[in-house]
Design brief:
The longest helix is centred in the last third of the chain and has 25 residues. The chain is mainly α. The protein is globular. Strands 1-2 form a two-stranded antiparallel ribbon.
């Protein structure tokens, strides 16, 4: 996968994510399926914030934490945001992600290596980039299930293609 193919896939992923965000009723922003889960508003903040974390980490090696334990503790304190704020930040943080990752050369993206606490060692940037996709898609699937648990009519077409069925 080339760098441009990677960035193109991220853009595709953002479109279907925005559609799911739009399905959330504002009055359910503080709902969560279990006591130890993110609220919907925290889930939104976590998802859009990851664009910023991975953009900085993949370009500079600065992950903002020294360990995954520190990241997990930070995640527990994730503030809730509204749907409109999440959509705004999704686009702004995606734009910054595309700008920063797009500034890498093909060689840096495919062969450059970085230390990363998420994988526990030194790995090629492209693999860390795939981890970002996995992270986003895992949380997107969680949000999809939150919507289903709330009785909101969503299906796999919405999950993978957004509003286009």
């Amino acid at each position: 996968m080339t760098l441009q193919q990677y960035l193109s896939y991220i853009a595709y992923m953002v479109n279907s994510t925005e559609f799911l965000f739009q399905q959330i009723p504002e009055e359910k922003i503080d709902w969560k399926p279990t006591e130890n889960s993110f609220t919907i508003g925290q889930q939104l903040a976590h998802m859009v914030g990851a664009f910023e974390v991975y953009a900085r980490g993949m370009t500079t090696g600065d992950w903002g934490v020294k360990s995954m334990r520190e990241r997990f503790l930070q995640n527990r304190r994730t503030p809730s945001i509204t749907v409109s704020e999440a959509i705004r930040l999704l686009h702004a943080n995606h734009d910054e992600f595309r700008r920063r990752i797009g500034s890498l050369s093909e060689e840096e993206f495919l062969r450059g290596e970085l230390e990363t606490p998420q994988l526990g060692g030194r790995f090629p940037r492209w693999r860390i980039g795939m981890l970002f996709i996995e992270h986003h898609l895992n949380h997107k699937a969680e949000l999809f299930m939150y919507l289903k648990l709330l009785g909101i009519k969503v299906n796999s077409g919405h999950l993978y293609r957004g509003g286009a069925l």
